[in-house]
Amino acid sequence: MAESTLKQVLKQKIEAFRPRIQKLNKEFGEVVIDKVNIGQAIGGARDVRCLVTDISYLDPQEGIRFRGKTIPETFEALKAHVVPGGEMPTVESFFYFLLTGEIPTKEQAQEVFAEFKKREALPQYVIDVLRAMPRDSHPMAMFSAGIVTMQRESVFAKRYGEGNLKKTDMWDPMYEDAMTLVARLPVLAAYIYRMKYKGDTHIASDASLDLGGNFAKMIGQVKPYDDVARMYFILHSDHESGNVSAHTSHLVASALSDAYYSYSAGINGLAGPLHGLANQEVLGWIQQTMKKLNNQVPSKEQLKQFLWDTLNSGQVIPGYGHAVLRKTDPRYTAQNEFAKKHLPNDPLFQLVNMIYEVAPGVLTEHGKTKNPWPNVDAHSGVIQWYYGVREWDFYTVLFGVGRALGVLANLVWDRGLGYAIERPKSVTTEMLEKWAHEGGRKI
Ligand code: CMX
């Protein structure tokens, strides 16, 4: 395959960046940047600084920045790539930006579009595997299986197997796999959607449409859903490296597993209710609440009671809280602004806004969570529901199509910068008790 401009730009950037990592590692490897306490060892390594990425950064107060830009700044910077008649930039231009940190020219974005088109066709053997699965399998199980089934095509695995792949060249076949996966995931997701929920009728990919527009068409949606798809994929793309889906993928890839093995593993993590599945849980919770009131929007008092009922039954309020964030998630705000414009009178949207008024107070009074504010998942299902994508259990697949952009961009850079195999150290409970008694581990 002829080298694309994106690949050349990446090669230059990776090679220019690599000495920074080598210098830090060789000359400053002993410099201490964090310490770990017993609470962190037991409590999921919260706040332990031991991952490196330059693709996004999550500030607890401000939320996510992609390549140094907030969400509004990102959309503003990519405005030349907004699809005519729409509001959102193409996923193609955004992916170029995530990978390189540069805003692409029209030609560069067009080249990514052409590359995706070349790679997007879903192989028949993937379809065969999907069709062999029981139809009531969760779509995330199908999505993960579809991804890992394509592993036989991994360029990375093939080149590695040839036995002469230099460490500094490993990013190149990782890039090849990443491009193919990003191109195919919307097609895979759309196939699962139509097979499971739309009577197994399928809509062919449209060669003229960008990734978001094409996905909308393949699942049977019309404008402005194409913009919803673009917005979703971009907003869900990256949330630095410590979240379960990104970290799982990074961990698996650190063993030099290829992108198919790695991202399929990440998808399995995304399928957990404390992570990506929360978007499906939110809709379920809202619908349940409305059902109890014969589909009437509850009063604030009633809503407060429902929130307490949920907490008192030992469940979490889905869509609220976050391991890092301590304020309203700007991904929630971006969706809220879109909804204000496009579905202001939708009763579910109004209910989401009412939950926003009530839930933080209830969660604060409940006194457990460190963050009573909503995360991305508190909003995403409602917009999908409004546009007629009402199969809740599919919502996390949408998250997975988007998350691939960030995870795969990171995997390319991980290989480019030669990050090591991950292997943190375990200790025993007895050791913790001893150190607790002694006031800390003697180093
Ligand atoms: N409702 C009720 N209790 C909550 C809560 C919520 N929304 N969020 C946190 N808590 C509880 C925790 O369960 C924990 O309780 P225990 O001490 O009994 O174990 C306590 O508050 C402290 O938790 P925390 O430090 O504030 O939060 P964590 O970092 O441990 O967990 C998260 C973060 C997201 C798993 C948690 O807030 C949660 O379960 N939220 C609801 C599920 C959700 O929306 N997940 C999606 C997150 C975004 C994403 O990844 O997609």
Automatic annotation (TrEMBL):
It comes from the Bacteria. Pathway: Carbohydrate metabolism; tricarboxylic acid cycle; isocitrate from oxaloacetate: step 1/2. One of its GO terms (molecular function) is citrate synthase activity. It is an enzyme of class 2 (transferase). InterPro entries: Citrate_synth-like_lrg_a-sub, Citrate_synth-like_sm_a-sub, Citrate_synthase, Citrate_synthase_AS, Citrate_synthase_sf. The keyword Transferase applies. Keywords: Acyltransferase, Transferase. One of its GO terms (biological process) is tricarboxylic acid cycle. Its EC number is 2.3.3.16. The keyword Acyltransferase applies. It holds the Pfam family Citrate_synt. PANTHER family: CITRATE SYNTHASE, CITRATE SYNTHASE, PEROXISOMAL. Belongs to the citrate synthase family. NCBIfam families: PRK09569.1. This is citrate synthase (unknown stereospecificity). It comes from Anaeromyxobacter dehalogenans (strain ATCC BAA-258 / DSM 21875 / 2CP-1).
